Request: fold
Amino acid sequence: MPRRHDPERRQRIIDAAIRVVGRQGIAGLSHRTVAAEADVPLGSTTYHFATLDELLVAALRQANEGFAKVVAAHPELADPEADVDLAGELARVLGEWLGGDRTGVELEYELYLAALRRPALRPVAAEWAEGVGALLAARTDPVTARALVAVLDGICLQVLLTDSVYDEGYAREVLARVLGGATGT
Reply:
């Protein structure tokens, strides 16, 4: 029987894995659940991704694009010549990301935090922090950029884990302090 040419199958499998994790969490992810979700034979998932960790790496890499796309839509964040309040702009961008589809943000963090137990995911999780840090280092310096990424991460986690409303004013204040311009008393 001739093999059916399906160049989009790998991407459909990744998309299906993201949907499965979004609905059932990492614990619900298996080659079988992904194959059913993607409507492909089970052998297709193992052909493209020999292990679940390989599939999770691909899913995390794709999920990481969520925040990166939001940041990329604001080139002034990386432009050292841009005349913008960096703390205010970062707080606004973070609010834009958290104010969108929170399911996507939660999924991104679930995959990101899966790296705690799955070492294969750690390099991909680090890519996100390094990418955002490199972008911000153009406006500050590498150490401050890393601190800003840590604060952004911390604020996101607090909002997600406490199911609270994002406070842009608070985020701006904290980010301004990291940048050396404390605005509070």
In short: The first helix runs from residue 9 to 24. The chain has a mean pLDDT of 87. The two ends are 75 Å apart (CA to CA). The chain is about 70% helix and 0% strand.
